[in-house]
TrEMBL record:
Protein name in the entry: phosphoserine phosphatase
InterPro entries in UniProt: HAD-like_SerB, HAD-like_sf, HAD_sf, PSP
Residues at the catalytic site: D247, D249
Lineage: Eukaryota, Fungi, Dikarya, Ascomycota, Pezizomycotina
Disordered: annotated span: 1-36, 102-149
Keywords of this entry: Amino-acid biosynthesis, Hydrolase, Magnesium, Metal-binding, Serine biosynthesis
Biased composition regions of type Polar residues, renumbered to the chain: 15-25
SUPFAM superfamilies per UniProt: HAD-like (SSF56784)
Organism the protein comes from: Penicillium steckii
Length: 464
């Protein structure tokens, strides 16, 4: 007989578990063999009301919901974020008109006939400082990322969204539970544009919002899935802007006006080279403008009338401007080009303001003098930002309710100053430095950044 004063025996590990690991950890226990009759079962529950009689082997309600088992280390009741938790909206655009790999993917390419040849090898753009195959460094360039859109579909697929959410979870921030939701903005089946909302955002002490926008993991995700991601902090002013300001050349129109004028006098090459360097930020804008204007000396003053038939309004510009007008926006074009064409474009698109540079005209010969009007300010980067703020103040519009769109280095200051600044099909430097960038086929894509979907765009355009 054991001593009553001896300490109780501790259970051993072998006594605490069965011989089967799976049996110990399975979610659903096998039903116990039925060995009792109905009388014994009812007799065991005499202390309970018959109305509360329930299945003794029902699954744990805290673990099983609907048709699936919830695997989580958190209490499900604590999944709701506190009211007022900041949110970030990521608008994902599939680049259907600009594939990463221009050649047909090998998996879907047709078989070559006997008389056909494979295309000649080419050097990927940006991979080496020369196009001469003999001068390329012997070490091969870094491989392009796997074109996952070729494998999983040329649209924002479910796997693409899953990958994006995984990237959010791997950001260098303290672990925190993230709530996410998404909606397709253009179509439910095979969407090209998807809006993802997640909260809370990364802790700014570890990763600021500005750094998040340019995070390497997101850049790699864009390359792999052939998409573009625009991140915005969610607020009522994200969805309710009141002033839109646009650049003109290569934004609202596809042309560079000064290059078109240069064609008339045979100096297109010289002017185009200067324009390209100025738009990339390699030259002082004001100095380069004066240099280019100097080459236009002697051009007939009616050249602007002739150019109107040459200029091409960018795809989606009319639809975008008419939609914003229907929403009550004030709109302006601020251009480093020239006033006559800016005013013409404002009339075409229904813009409220048009401000550009003024060329001096020799009244005697009705030709351009090759100089700018000295009494008028040059519309450079600083002047565009000043005009943005003055137009907003004139209409009592907070700067957070402004939208700016441009493509050149002289647009960067106003892009950063606005509530939302979009670099549209911009030069390389501008894409790197702008708050957001888009390289779509139609300016209508900007409506998606305002929280509108395709149905809203159709209704605003008056098509129904």
């Amino acid at each position: 007989m054991a001593d009553s004063n001896s300490p109780p025996q501790r259970p051993s590990l072998g006594q605490m578990r069965s011989s089967s690991f799976l049996q110990d950890h399975q979610q659903y226990k096998p039903p116990a063999p039925i060995s009792a009759n109905i009388g014994e079962v009812l007799g065991a529950q005499l202390d309970e009301s018959l109305s509360t009689l329930s299945n003794p082997i029902k699954p744990d309600p805290e673990r099983v919901h609907d048709s699936g088992v919830i695997h989580s280390i958190f209490n499900h009741q604590a999944a709701q974020m506190p009211h007022g938790t900041p949110r970030i909206v990521a608008t994902i655009f599939y680049k259907s008109g600009n594939p990463v790999h221009p050649h047909i993917h090998p998996d879907v390419s047709p078989h070559l006939a006997g008389n056909q040849k494979l295309p000649s090898p080419s050097v990927p753009e940006g991979s080496a400082p020369t196009d001469d195959l003999e001068k390329i460094p012997r070490e091969p360039p870094a491989p392009e990322p796997e074109p996952l859109d070729h494998l999983y579909g040329p649209y924002v697929s479910q796997l693409c969204l899953t990958n994006f959410l995984q990237i959010l979870d791997t950001l260098p921030t303290p672990y925190q539970r993230t709530n996410t939701s998404h909606r397709c903005l253009d179509r439910e089946e095979h969407p090209r544009v998807v809006e993802v909302t997640f909260s809370p955002p990364p802790d700014p002490e570890y990763l600021s919002f500005e750094d998040l926008r340019k995070h390497e993991s997101i850049w790699r995700f864009e390359r792999e899935w052939n998409v573009e991601v625009v991140l915005q902090e969610e607020s009522v002013f994200r969805r309710h802007k009141r002033l839109a300001v646009f650049d003109m050349d290569s934004t609202l129109i596809e042309n560079e006006v000064i290059d078109e004028i240069a064609k008339f006098i045979g100096v297109e090459k010289e002017v185009s080279e200067i324009t390209e360097r100025a738009m990339n930020g390699e030259l002082d804008f004001a100095a380069s403008l004066k240099e280019r204007v100097g080459l236009l000396k002697g051009v007939p003053a009616d050249v602007f009338e002739k150019l109107k038939s040459v200029l091409t309004i960018s795809k989606g510009a009319r639809e975008l401007c008419s939609s914003l007008k229907a929403l009550g926006y004030k709109m302006a074009v601020l251009s480093g080009g020239f006033q006559p064409l800016a005013e013409w474009l404002a009339g075409e698109l229904g813009l409220d303001y048009a401000v550009a540079n003024h060329l001096e005209i020799d009244t005697a010969t009705q030709t351009l003098t090759g100089k700018l009007v000295e009494s008028k300010p040059i519309i450079d980067a600083a002047q565009k930002r000043t005009l943005l703020k003055s137009i907003a103040a004139e209409n009592n519009i907070p700067i957070s309710q402004t939208l700016t769109v441009g493509d050149g280095a002289n647009d960067l200051l106003m892009l950063h100053a606005a509530g939302l600044g979009v670099a549209w099909r911009a030069k390389s430097k501008v894409q790197l430095e702008a708050p957001t960038r888009l390289n779509g086929e139609s300016l209508v894509d900007i409506l998606y950044l305002l929280g509108l979907d395709s149905e809203d765009a159709i209704e605003l355009s008056g098509q129904r």
